[in-house]
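Exercise 7b. C-alpha cells:
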C-alpha cells in the first residue's frame, strides 16, 4: 500500500535530496556538528510532509508544510558554510540551492492549498515567491 504523500512530487524530491545530502556529508572536512545539523534539517523536510499529510485538519496540515519549508531555509546557511570551507564546489552549491528553491516553492503552494486565504504574503526570497 502506498501512502498518499508518497505521490507528492515535493516528497519524492525531498527523499532524493536526502540521498544527495548524505553524499555531501561523507566528504572529508565535514565536522560532526555540521553533518548532524544538515542531516537533521534535510530529513525534516520529508518527515514533516508525511506528518502533515497524516493530519486531519487543514490548519494542522498547513503548519507541518510550513515547518518543512522552514527546514528548506535551514539548509541554506549550512550549504553556504560547506561552500566557504571548500567542501563542495560552486556547481554543487548551485544545484543544491536550486533544488532547495524548487522545494521551497512547492511547499509554499502546498501550504497555501490548505489555507482559507490562498495568497498569504510569503516568499522564498525577496525575488522569489
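Sequence design result:
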Amino acid at each position: 500500500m502506498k501512502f498518499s504523500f508518497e505521490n507528492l512530487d515535493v516528497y519524492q524530491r525531498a527523499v532524493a535530496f536526502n540521498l544527495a545530502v548524505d553524499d555531501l556529508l561523507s566528504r572529508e572536512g565535514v565536522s560532526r556538528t555540521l553533518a548532524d545539523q544538515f542531516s537533521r534539517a534535510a530529513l525534516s523536510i520529508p518527515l514533516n510532509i508525511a506528518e502533515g499529510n497524516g493530519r486531519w485538519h487543514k490548519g494542522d496540515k498547513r503548519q507541518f508544510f510550513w515547518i518543512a519549508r522552514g527546514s528548506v531555509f535551514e539548509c541554506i546557511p549550512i550549504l553556504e558554510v560547506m561552500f566557504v570551507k571548500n567542501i563542495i564546489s560552486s556547481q554543487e552549491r548551485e544545484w543544491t540551492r536550486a533544488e532547495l528553491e524548487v522545494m521551497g516553492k512547492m511547499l509554499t503552494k502546498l501550504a497555501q492549498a490548505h489555507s482559507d486565504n490562498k495568497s498569504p504574503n510569503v516568499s522564498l526570497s525577496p525575488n522569489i515567491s
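Instructor comment: The domain at 4-113 is CATH 1.20.1440.60 (de novo design (two linked rop proteins)). The chain has a mean pLDDT of 90.
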